[in-house]
Design goal:
This protein is of the alpha+beta class.
Length: 78
């Protein structure tokens, strides 16, 4: 069973599931209970391709469409 996370930004509040975390908490796979939204939160700008593929497979086993995962580019000054 995934862990639950609630995000409250004042005007916006949402409930999410933490589906997986890295061994050193260097990344997390987070999804919306509706199975329509999916994110990878990472401490680094990139993840090795095998880690990303493993997260996509995990998401698929949980009922998410891995195609819903959108990669967000990070600027080089962060």
């Amino acid at each position: 069973m995934p862990a639950k996370l609630t995000l409250d930004l004042g005007l916006y509040r949402g409930a999410y599931w933490v589906l997986a975390v890295g061994n050193d908490y260097d990344y997390a796979l987070v999804g919306h209970p509706s199975l329509t939204m999916l994110w990878v939160l990472s401490r680094s700008k990139t993840l090795p391709s095998d880690v990303l593929e493993g997260l996509e497979q995990h998401a698929s086993r949980e009922g998410y469409d891995p195609a819903a995962l959108v990669m967000t580019p990070m600027s080089s000054d962060e």
